[in-house]
Specification:
Distance between the termini: 60 Å
Mean pLDDT: 81
Shape: elongated
Number of strands: 3
CATH topology of the largest domain: Rossmann fold
Strand content: 5-15%
Order of helices and strands: HHEHEHEHHH
Number of domains: 2
CATH architecture of the largest domain: 3-Layer(aba) Sandwich
Structural class: mainly alpha
Helix content: 55-70%
């Protein structure tokens, strides 16, 4: 039913009958979003989400849980796992569509985002190592060449730049 609703809205949809089939699909094809039930045969939604979040190809795909499990504990588990949204059944169709659009917008923004944090950290580390090398060359032979001295020199150089 959800697949038919999404197709009516113009989305391309891939459907799976169980968790194992869902994993096979997300590994084989490219998806912008996964709407996932938790209570599925063969492999439940918790396991699918957990595996998706651990694999490079699927870890950045937003997951929207759509499930009858409505307890606070289940919802908290979904949020802690890193799902984008957690919707309980019965659900409002308009609300589902709004949340799907929000997840797709967020997914699109993430793809267009500036360099990843890891890249920025790597660049800063390279700058720091270069500065440490300069400092150690300049101060070689002094009685103090500890980390505090290098950090102090780095801060002074940053202020000059």
């Amino acid at each position: 039913m959800v697949g038919a609703l999404l197709e009516e809205e113009g989305y391309q949809v891939g459907l799976a009958q169980n968790g194992e089939e869902a994993m096979r699909l997300v590994r084989q094809e490219s998806f912008d979003l996964v709407v996932l039930d938790i209570m599925m045969p063969v492999m439940d939604g918790w396991e699918v989400a957990s595996r998706m979040l651990c694999e490079d190809k699927t870890k950045d795909i937003p997951i929207v849980f759509l499930t009858a499990l409505s307890s606070y504990t289940d919802q908290l588990k979904g949020w802690r796992m890193g799902c984008f949204d957690y919707i309980t059944k019965p659900f409002d169709i308009g609300l589902l569509m709004m949340r799907v659009r929000a997840a797709l917008e967020k997914s699109s923004q993430n793809r267009e985002a500036p360099p990843q944090v890891e890249e920025l950290v790597e660049k800063k580390i390279e700058q720091l190592l270069s500065l440490m090398g300069e400092t150690l060359q300049r101060d070689y032979g002094l009685r103090r060449m500890g980390v505090v001295d290098v950090v102090d020199d780095y801060a002074v150089k940053e202020e000059r730049d």
